Structure prediction request, 394 residues.
Amino acid sequence: MDHPQRRELLMRGAAGVAAAAGVLALRGGSWTAAAQEGERTLLWADQPPPVPTELAGLARNLKPWEVLDSWITPIANFFQVGHYGWPAITPAAWRLEVEGRVGAPLRLSLADLKAAPRQEVTYTLECSGNHGLPFLSSAIGNARWGGVRLADVLRRAGISQDAKEVVFYGADKAEEVVRAGTPLELRFSANFARSMPVDDAMNPANLLCYEMNGEDLPAAHGAPVRLIVPGWYGIANVKWLQRIEVRDTRFVNRFMARDYVTVREERRGDETIVTESTVGRGRLKSAPARVTVRDGRYRITGMAWGPAPIAAVEVKVDDGPWARATLADADPAAPFAWRFWRLDWTPQPGEHRITSRAIDTSGEVQPAMDDPLIAGKKTYWESNGQVTRLIRIG
Prediction:
């Protein structure tokens, strides 16, 4: 449904973006939000709590937003997530199996992949739980990923005409328990795995990635090879990849059917129903990143990203009106990367709430926290509601 607010914002968007272009003609890659000489970054007053001890093995290296101040995120500042631990793999001994509904099964070494034409994509990878849990608020980063096209490898293997899904298995594994504590309890060892339809897998942007920011892919980020699927949440970007299976039937496992499933309540007339959907493609989002001050002048900066191009970002302070931020120009060579934005601000002393919302070229607006899309969500995943941060001035 075409919401009136979206129509209004889209009509205002073209004029606002054109005006912003007259003020700032910079690509995302050349405009960083790092503090300039004489500029001081203020710390947010609502710093997230530490990762709970029992989840310390799941999420690591979560830097404060204030540290994410460059268009390309350095590897040292890039978040890490490991569901089944952090396997260490010897690159020389590693092999990738491509099997199932294919005419010519493959067994590829790292050298085999590197002998194929190298491709690179700049892609902002976000954990689907980002902002869904109190401690998980900076699980995002933008990197240059290098490798070989997944589609080229699948074509080489000769996908059968009846193929429906492609499954990607990581080397990381753990014991799974189904129906724990019941007579039907089942325990088994399982590798981490995710799947996608064949048409999605054949997207030319997808990579079997062995480089990150021009360096060998680090072990913490999935070395020797990981899957990179631009436009999807991090969970789909399987790390420590060791096997690809082409299937003629649907694939279900913990990470496709039992976990990373978004549960929502929706009103259908007088009835409330519950829907469940597998986490997949990313969603429209933005976030305030930092507030800086220089010679008494304040500036709010942040990032915006999503599956469709960003048309505008608007910022609200406390209960004031939405103000149009200045967007860095989009880089045509990096359609999957976030865009930086900024807004000059004259604050009064005291505590302030800063909220941002992104608007894409289709007119979609990043939802407020009380929007039914967010308010009716009962799980942590796909938390793309408007982000509000607290700052103290004076």
In short: Residues 1-27 have pLDDT under 50 and may be disordered. Residues 4-56+282-393 form a domain with the Immunoglobulin-like fold (CATH 2.60.40.650). DSSP finds six helices and 23 strands in the chain. The first strand starts at residue 40 and ends at 42.
